[in-house]
Amino acid sequence: DLSRYLELIHCFSLRQSVHPAREMAMNQPLLGGATTTGMFGPVGLVIQAAITAAFWNAKLDLSGANDTDKSSVYNYYVGVALMMFVGFGYLMTFLKAYGIGAVGLTMFITCIGVEFAVLIESYMGKGVLQIDFLSLLNGNFAVAAVLISFGGLIGKISPMQITVLTLVELLCYCANKVFFLKQYASSPLIADCGGTIIIHVFGAYFGLCACKVLGPPKDDKLNASSYTSDIFSLVGTVFLWLFWPSFVAGALPSGPGQTTALINTVLALLASSVVTFAITPMIENGKLTTVPIQNATLAGGVSIGATANLVGPFGALVIGGCAGLLSTVGFTKSPFFGDCDTCGISNLHGMPGIFGGLVSVAVPFMYHGTGLVAANQAVGLAGTLVVACVTGACTGFVLKAVGSPEEAFTDDTFWAECDDKGIAKQ
After folding, report:
1. CA angle, 350 then 354 then 359, to 5°
2. Element (H, E) at 131
């Protein structure tokens, strides 16, 4: 009869339904983190304990201790560290509801990243864990690649995903630097004192391919800036600008080559800044816009890195001006990766990095006695691009499995007591 029929339908529907708690558990990311930090805390402690244990047999390399003042390695280290903590951190505060995350998580990436990079790069490159100021400097260089990638992913990944990104990318970065580019060999495959290829190209395209695989967030309404957040971001730009010469020349031995690199980096930055300020209103209907000024002004520092110690002042100005033009067009037109690249790392690090790598291929034909081998520079650039894209895409799948936040581009998801969250969401 009808009552029996309705009872059967009700029983069937109960069998098909899933208990709300079970359904919520099924939808949770692998390691939690959709609305809280999930396993981030315990995993972070385990990683720190493991790194601490790995330093059990570490030795301090004091062979050059008497030369520290002369070579000023520590001063260069401080400059590069300021770029990581303050420069990158505040540059990424342009997101109106993600300022605390930008600065705070940049600090976490730098701290855990330098530890891990010093550990694995020392073993990969030297076979022993001996630490000097140059080791710390190289650790910061490695972290720069991760922070570049983080620029593309910022606001869309959880602290747990950030931890995974940092460790996996550093393994890939160090392997590419040591085994493919042979930077610890007596005859390295490429010359790249400022990391144009080693750091910027690798970090940019690793991050961009991870972005593509991870996909867009569910809601991007908070992916925007405000007047206040843009001011803080410009503070980061200024810090990066001021200390970029230390980043390019810090690892070079003291002498004419290092001095040349310092001067040429400043000249390249000057040129890219002036070109950016000049070109932006020509493209933007007679108005200056903040995004190119925050970013494209730094493009000269990216492009000059591979040849900073080899070209003359005129070459540095040409390279910097062209880099500024290329980056400004990228930020105003967004020709590549505009749908997934939060900070525009394609426009600041990717395209200027490739341009700088191509310049290093051409330099042997324009300057005599540089020691560059054009074919090797080309192979190093192409190979690094391939390695970055493949490993970045694979990392993207790992990040997707770990699980992304429910709400993107807001500190509210993972930080307590965010006083400005209400204003930012208006």
Report:
1. 145
2. strand 130-131
